[in-house]
Design goal:
The chain is mainly alpha-helical. The protein contains 14 helices and no strands. Helix 1 crosses helix 3 and helix 9 packs antiparallel against helix 10. The longest helix has 26 residues.
């Protein structure tokens, strides 16, 4: 295929699933029928690959979220008395300006609110911040996902994130789905690194493999999309150093998590910048 066609193909893919509903360029409108057909085929192949990866990501629930909602992680009254000082301040989300920041914040707040509830902390500030974000973003798919996130059912959670992905693809917001998913993956690792033994309580080797596999999938999709969505570069850079987390069993995962604790904290603290 001619070099110019490859360049225009990238533009076409951006138009197909653009986060900003970008308009076709004049160059695109001048493509021949043959070039348009080739572009459509490549678009379809790319979307099929992303759909396949998303089905793997959405097909299993986040092990930390599942453990909390199912009651596998329990705190004694003594443990509850020492409140976590590492959760995001819900008030900070009112300062956010970009869609990427707001979608990432949704993930952080949803997970942090689960941790706060685990420690018996009031969740009013989280609920208020989440409701405001949902209202500000005004994305029907996100509103529905927010409703489904309160369920304790594994199947409901999987269905909720799968529906979110499908709807965001349909609405031209695939990049924002991965902004959320990448941020959730980082926040999960960050939370777990704060109290490794407690937050891996009841988890299996399969859960460890799931955690690192989800990281791999989020990073892979982000890296593929960043060429078409330059605004995703910051998430791509944030995920890059986490390549070393590749454990396939819980013992190795806990060791790698401990070794990466400082780096994970640095990365997490840049998510809303």
């Amino acid at each position: 295929m001619k070099k110019i066609t490859l360049i225009l193909m990238a533009c076409a893919i951006v138009a197909m699933s653009s986060c900003g509903n970008r308009k076709k360029t004049a160059e695109q409108s001048q493509l021949s029928d043959k070039d348009n057909f080739e572009i459509q085929q490549l678009e379809a192949n790319l979307q099929a690959q992303l759909d396949s990866i998303a089905s793997l990501f959405c097909g299993k629930t986040n092990p930390l979220v599942s453990s909390i909602k199912s009651g596998k992680i329990e705190l004694s009254e003594s443990e509850k008395s020492i409140k976590p000082d590492y959760l995001i301040d819900p008030a900070k989300t009112s300062e956010l300006t970009t869609l990427a920041q707001k979608y990432r914040a949704m993930s952080l707040l949803l997970l942090d609110s689960e941790i706060a509830s685990l420690y018996g902390m009031p969740d009013d500030s989280y609920t208020a911040a989440l409701s405001k974000l949902v209202s500000d973003i005004n994305d029907p798919a996100l509103k529905q996902y927010y409703k489904s996130s309160s369920s304790k059912s594994t199947e409901d959670l999987k269905e909720g994130i799968t529906n979110l992905y499908n709807d965001e693809v349909k609405n031209g917001r695939i990049c924002l789905f991965w902004e959320m998913s990448g941020a959730l993956t980082i926040e999960t690792l960050y939370i777990m690194s704060q109290n490794i033994d407690k937050f891996t309580e009841g988890m299996t080797d399969s859960d460890a493999d799931n955690l690192t596999y989800r990281l791999f999938l989020a990073k892979y999709c982000t890296d593929q999309l960043v060429a078409f969505y330059p605004e995703m570069e910051s998430l791509s850079k944030a995920l890059a150093p986490l390549d070393v987390l590749n454990a396939m069993d819980m013992a190795e995962f806990k060791q790698q998590l401990a070794e990466m604790k400082g780096q994970i904290e640095i990365i997490r603290n840049t998510l809303l910048d």
